[in-house]
Amino acid sequence: MSEFKKGSKKLLNAWAFYDWANSVYTLTIASSIFPLFYSSLFDSKETLVSAFGFTMKQETLITIVTAFTFLVVAVLSPILSGIADYVGNKKNFMKFFCYVGSIGCIGLYWFNLSFIHFSLLFYFMGLIGYWGSLVFYNSYLPDIAFEDQQDSISAKGFSMGYIGSVLLLIANLIMVMTQEEDADKIEMMRYSFITVGVWWALFSQYTFRILPNGVSSGHKVTKDVVFNGFKELKAVWVQLKQNLRLKRYLNAFFVFSMAVQTIMLMAVYFGEKEINWASDGEKTIGLIVSILVIQLVAILGAILTSRAASKFGNISTLIVINFMWMCLCVYAYFMVSPIQFYIAAGLVGLVMGGVQSLGRSTYSKYLPETEDTTSYFSFYDVAEKIGIVIGMFIFAFVSEYSSMRYAILFLFVFFLIGIILLFRVPKEE
Questions:
Q1: What is the rounded average pLDDT of the residues 269-277?
Q2: How many CB atoms are located within 10 Å of the residue 120 CB?
Q3: Which residues pair with 57 in a beta bridge?
Q4: Are residues 209 and 202 in contact, defined by beta-carbon separation less than 8 angstroms?
Q5: CA geometry: angle at 260 spanning 160 and 19, to 5°?
Q6: Which of 70, 36, 37, 38 minimizes the C-alpha distance to 51?
Q7: Confidence class for position 372, pLDDT limits 50, 70, 90
Q8: What does the alpha-carbon distance between residue 246 and residue 113 come to, in Å, rounded to a whole number?
Q9: How far is residue 412's CA from residue 419's CA, in Å, rounded to a whole number?
Q10: Are residues 349 and 295 in contact, defined by beta-carbon separation less than 8 angstroms?
Q11: Rounded Cα gap, residues 189 and 178, in angstroms
Q12: CATH class of 9-213+236-423
């Protein structure tokens, strides 16, 4: 175990610092430069792509691959968390996914449509590395922080992630925009993927040095242990029947998280195709600036949400945030100009930071007294990932047969259902 006691400042800061390390993936790869790079590989917005024996729209392919990755994470996380609990060293699993993800990011340098399946493998590695490591990272929260510390340290983690990722994105933006030729700009985009992988692996070392390994059991992994995680998920499901507040919160989280994560993953693809940019140069700068706005405002959003939750309660605050997301879905359906997109970016940042931070800490606060936090957070992550899979497939289906505008508008329904379900969460257990 770590020499630092639960609740100590150094332990809390080391945990939060992993957000600084891994958030560069979500900003550069998932949200900004990679979507622009991916779109630049096609002759026009209408160019179709062939993969896995099918021909489809560009955004449909990346949406399906993303959804498939989340499905893999949903299946793997209970297996791995069960093994981690049995062996007693979840930090090694967190490290494994961290390094898989960083290698995947570096591999994106060689992304090419001529080798689309090999290229998508690197994309898959980055995505599964990021989300796989979060299964174990999130499960540390109740282990290292007391209940009255969890909202603030969760918000601090997201805030550190936003700051670190913005710093690297600015450096990457300078790399790209100082080039005059389009081919040179694309090459700099490729180098930015390498910087993400190196940043992620390098800065995570501080977290890995300070965080405890977990209680070592001395057990060895056998065939019987491999599926122990699913048994633990079943046990958590049974226990949820006795914990009405946690069960109803999970139902609400499953629904609104589905919509939030889908919007976050597809926002830049929407802006690239649906907004009337004056030129390709304006589009590149505009989309990256929008992402920077989202990240910077999200810092404020995470802090304000934490304070609002302490004053008005977590559930009431989440209801207001979900209502704001509903309004944004309607607004996004009608926006066409760059200035409208910038306004949306600011509003998305405000509610994105809040809903991510508060969603995680609310679940942690509602957990019963238990040492088996990994299983509970595995259940949380499986619910989140299955929700994302459903949301992404719905988005891909609606987008393929109509447009991305209708796909965004359709997500309005999930936020509405989320609000209804949040109202059903008891104030006390």
A1: 84
A2: 18
A3: 48
A4: no
A5: 20
A6: 38
A7: low
A8: 45
A9: 11
A10: yes
A11: 12
A12: mainly alpha
